[in-house]
Amino acid sequence: MSEITKALIKAFASLLHPRMLLLMLWPVAIALVLWLGLAFAFWSEAAAWLQSQFERSALIEWAIGVWPLTLVASHLAWVLLVLLFVPLVLITAVLIIGVFSMPAMVAHLAGRSYPRLELRSGGTFAGSVWNSVAALAWLALLVLLSLPLWLVPLLWPVLPVLLFAYLNQRVFRYDALAEHASAWEMQTLIRRHRRELFLLGVALALIGMIPVLGFFTPVYAGLAYIHYCLARLAQLRDEAVATQ
What we know:
The protein is mostly helical. It has helices spanning 3-15, 18-23, 26-56, 58-63, 76-113, 125-145, 158-177, 183-192, 194-208, 217-243. The longest helix is centred in the middle third of the chain and has 38 residues, at 76-113.
């Protein structure tokens, strides 16, 4: 069984604990309230601005003449805002969990599943905040660079998965290791397991696409990355002991 599969299974078991079930609710609730408030205040203005930008773009004008975009051409701005709402809520929930909830989640899981792991504090709260800000900035850049690809219908299911996979692994890998790994151990694990960290993000992004259930995926994702990263950290330290 791969470490990714083990992490997903262990995360599901950990998710059933009452403390983790409570964590599933408040970050998503805060994100929902925030974006519902912004939508109520600025929805019409945002839709009008987007529509005006579409009218100035020859590429958009060409794209809405291609099926199936022709079906929503007259309301494209509203459709786009609706489609953006859920991702924005999930992105906000991921960032809230990464910065504020992950230390409690790590402490909970480490005490139960990895009690022998020594704390080496390679990360800090400031580092967590900076990592989340950097992840958000890179995500925004990737979205901008991929904008032409969103006009290709066959890529619509693929692009959100890849973008959320990037966000998941970038935010959660740091916070999962911050308290237990040294700075060198964090760098080594991220470099050595970069591919698996991204594939775990892909699996979690696919789970996040399930209607309704997707709203609660951020906590599950955090738990999965904690299990994966701490298991890999334990293996790294065992390797160091074996070579001594």
